[in-house]
């Protein structure tokens, strides 16, 4: 089977490189690319067990602490898989997962996730619903929440969380005051909000969404998160008095990817406005420098911050999948980007083939480092998602662009969102505000008082009679030189 896979791999590599490159406009049969995409989809979905007895639809329990957001990303990818290939094998599982996780208010805040869910986590499920609307994935039963309305609900929830008080705007990473990250504003949360607003603007033609997209991008580009060279950094912290000015040097592919896609949607919505073309070009130039490094030929996608050192965590192993997906939609709705993006997609897909093996009943398994000449032996659902994304991205120009309200079928609800946001309690505020010197001194005093009280209470409990109690108090208050009581060493 490995030999057959190698033969198919070589054939597809030739087809991808030849596809779209013929000057006379001849159409190349991409059935073999579809077949490999099916193999990769099957391998990715082998990780999913939420539909099995004892499982929870939409959750991947076999991965242990596998993040909820990444499950949402997987099902968004499966929506796109159906759209690219026409294969509906996984449609029922995908629809079940996307609807099971909506939560009691149909806004992707399920009760089993609200203690750990962040704005970015919620956004990836919203993206899956938005893709279902744009790509005309089969609509749910009319009694169930609809794809467009789900995306609008998440937008409304997040727009209400916009925080002008700290750092002059932006979304916090976490919206639960007790979560680590409540005092951070990161690119993925704000970038996802920007992209969601841009996509809703294009789909609905409601300019309110576009205004929010402009507002969020403008805030990021004037913050430390995006610099003048369109380097995109990860996060900034803040407290009640100051906003951190140094975000750190690390750049991740999904951060810049969500900005590329959002900018492409805004370019399309504004009928090619120069500002969005300029921003897209700037982001793509930085993408070339960082994620398609010259030492690997300049066209092979690389998660440079962790792949080279081999220390990508379970989140980071899937980041390239999102960059690939967002580059693919960008060439559909901002065609001027094709000359830059398409060679990346083609060459990266060919490179990904080289580190995959297996096929059919055994499943296709893929390594992580596409720039290496052979499989590195790593195995993870992130590897499968990235390989699948980069392969099917090469089908983008063979499919129609995402639909809008005129050509789509999904019903919307501009007022969706549900219950009001939980307000921070006094305990929440105390738990999340920064400590001061006064807090520390007060803590020391309080601790000393409590220890003294606890000691006296303990003596009362242990004392057999009043005389013992009197001696015990005298001993405790005057400082005994021999630490004994009732014959037992203390």
From TrEMBL:
GO terms for molecular function: mannan endo-1,6-alpha-mannosidase activity. Keywords: Glycoprotein, Glycosidase, Hydrolase, Membrane, Signal, Transmembrane, Transmembrane helix. GO terms for cellular component: endomembrane system. Its EC number is 3.2.1.101. It is found in: Endomembrane system. SUPFAM superfamilies: Six-hairpin glycosidases. It comes from the Eukaryota. One of its GO terms (biological process) is fungal-type cell wall biogenesis. InterPro entries: 6-hairpin_glycosidase_sf, Glyco_hydro_76, Mannan-1_6-alpha_mannosidase. The keyword Hydrolase applies. It holds the Pfam family Glyco_hydro_76. Residues 401-423 are annotated as: Disordered. Residues 1-21 form the signal peptide. The chain crosses the membrane at residues 441-462. Belongs to the glycosyl hydrolase 76 family. This is Mannan endo-1,6-alpha-mannosidase. It comes from Venturia nashicola.
């Amino acid at each position: 089977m490995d030999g057959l896979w190698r033969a198919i791999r070589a054939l597809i590599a030739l087809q991808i490189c030849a596809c779209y490159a013929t000057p006379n406009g001849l159409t190349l049969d991409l059935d073999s690319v579809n077949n490999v995409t099916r193999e990769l989809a099957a391998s990715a979905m082998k990780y999913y067990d939420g539909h099995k007895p004892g499982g929870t639809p939409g959750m991947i329990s076999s991965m242990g602490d596998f993040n909820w957001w990444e499950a949402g990303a997987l099902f968004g990818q499966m929506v796109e898989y159906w759209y690219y290939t026409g294969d509906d094998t996984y449609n029922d599982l995908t629809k079940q997962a996307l609807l099971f996780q909506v939560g009691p208010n149909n806004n992707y805040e399920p009760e089993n996730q609200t203690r750990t869910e962040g704005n970015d986590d919620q956004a990836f499920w919203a993206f899956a619903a938005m893709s279902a609307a744009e790509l005309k994935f089969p609509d749910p039963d009319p009694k169930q929440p609809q794809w467009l309305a789900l995306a609008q609900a998440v937008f409304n929830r997040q727009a209400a969380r916009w925080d002008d008080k700290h750092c002059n705007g932006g979304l916090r990473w976490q919206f639960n005051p007790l979560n680590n990250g409540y005092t951070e504003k990161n690119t993925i949360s704000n970038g996802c909000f920007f992209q969601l607003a841009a996509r809703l603007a294009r789909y609905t033609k409601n300019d309110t969404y576009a205004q929010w997209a402009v507002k969020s991008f403008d805030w990021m580009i004037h913050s430390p998160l995006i610099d003048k060279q369109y380097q995109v950094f990860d996060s900034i912290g803040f407290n009640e008095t100051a906003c951190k000015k140094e975000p750190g040097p690390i750049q991740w592919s999904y951060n810049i990817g969500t900005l590329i896609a959002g900018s492409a949607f805004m370019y399309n919505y504004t009928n090619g406005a120069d500002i969005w073309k300029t921003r897209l070009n700037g982001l793509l130039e930085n993408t070339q420098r960082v994620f398609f490094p010259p030492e690997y030929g300049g066209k092979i996608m690389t998660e440079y911050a962790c792949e080279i050192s081999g220390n990508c965590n379970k989140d980071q192993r899937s980041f390239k999948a999102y960059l690939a997906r967002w580059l693919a939609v960008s060439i559909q709705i901002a065609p001027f980007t094709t000359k830059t993006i398409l060679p990346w997609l083609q060459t990266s897909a060919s490179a990904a083939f080289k580190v995959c093996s297996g096929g059919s009943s055994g499943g296709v398994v893929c390594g992580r480092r596409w720039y290496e000449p052979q499989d590195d032996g790593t195995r993870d659902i992130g590897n499968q998602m990235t390989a699948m994304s980069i392969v099917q991205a090469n089908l983008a120009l063979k499919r129609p662009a995402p639909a809008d309200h005129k050509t789509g079928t999904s019903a919307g609800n501009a007022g969706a969102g549900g219950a009001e946001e939980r307000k921070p309690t006094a305990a929440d505020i105390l738990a999340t505000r920064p400590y001061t010197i006064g807090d520390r001194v007060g803590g020391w005093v309080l601790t000393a008082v409590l220890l003294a009280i606890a000691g006296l209470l303990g003596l009362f409990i242990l004392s057999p009679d009043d005389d013992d109690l009197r001696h015990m108090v005298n001993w405790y208050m005057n400082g005994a030189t021999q630490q004994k009581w009732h014959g037992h060493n203390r």
